[in-house]
Amino acid sequence: xxxxxxxxxxxxxxxxxxxxxxxxxKELNHDWEDGAAYALLGSSGCGKSTLLNIISGxxxxxxxxxxFDGQDVTHAPTAERNIAQVFQFPxxxxxxxxxxxLAFPLRNRGRDEAYVAERVQEIARMIGMEDMLSRxxxxxxxxAKQKISLGRGMVRKDVNALLFDEPLTVxxxxxxxxxRTQLKKLHHDFGHTMIYVTHDQTEAxxxxxxxxxxxxxRVVQIGTPEELFERPEHTFVGYFIGSPGMNVIPARVDGxxxxxxxxxxxxxxxxxxxxxxxxxxxxxxFARLSQTxxxxxxxxxxxxxxxxxxxxxxxxxxxxxxxxxEDEHVSTxxxxxxxxxxxxxxxxxxxxxxxKGEAA
Length: 360
Prior knowledge:
Blueprint: E1 4-11, E2 25-32, E3 37-41, H1 48-56, E4 63-68, E5 71-72, E6 83-86, H2 98-107, H3 113-126, H4 142-154, E7 161-165, H5 173-190, E8 193-198, H6 201-207, E9 210-215, E10 218-223, H7 225-230, H8 235-240, E11 247-250, E12 252-260, E13 263-271, E14 278-282, E15 287-290, E16 295-304, E17 308-315, E18 318-325, E19 336-339, E20 345-348, E21 351-353
Parallel strand pairs: 3-8, 3-9, 6-7, 7-8
Antiparallel strand pairs: 1-2, 1-4, 4-5, 9-10, 11-14, 12-13, 14-20, 15-19, 16-17, 16-19, 17-18, 20-21
């Protein structure tokens, strides 16, 4: 296990980057705590895999350093970093049995056969392949091969870090939850530093102690699932986390009131004058239809998805979503909407602005 430090790190795939826009990974400084489980979350092309490959040593950064427990490993090859990496698509030895595939990392490091057998059996049980240990990997399904890759990544207890690059993409949906649960159990039992790349918010939020949200090559927020939901530091975080995502509405903010086309929305705190693109963000969970108060709203349709209803609506020319409880009454005469003032965030140029007096 290791504390991983990213020091002034950035990367461009161009030979002579001239501006920040030329960097696939923009400057980053952060400490990954020893023994913590992180998820790198973002849409395709945001820099997740670039960052993971720099940490693993498959890619050398254009600038900055990588340190494991204070030791500079920026130019150290992957083999010297003592990490295990599981890729998006399965990497197995087709001519070997499942048992020998799982045993390979241990035998390669000279572990005795009694320990190898015990550990392989334990991992095979974890990934549900005990009855397939004697089968050759050739001819197995893609999800079975990926389970072997996962198992081979997890078989060593002494690694500095376990890195996962969208490892459940080819796994059947009914197996994904079980394997995520096993990964969390592994982390709980052995305390490995884990970094898990995904574009799936459910995977990220259910796996990680802290989620690292990336957008356009930049880390825009690092936080617990609760922090990302309650206080998105960037409009992308609000949009990407949650289903449906946060409503973002252009507004003018004056003190403790936001004005949407002249109609006021009360805010929980006061704000200094703001420049640039100003918006408010409110999650669908904190919006409510009303017959008597709030902003004028026009309901387009109501989608009943069992646990709750999603109300697709329009407020003063801006599309919004509203969540209603499963048994909550929605009628045609409910033509106003209110927002919970304590849950409304204010953004300037996509970044959250703290109200006056808010604790850091």
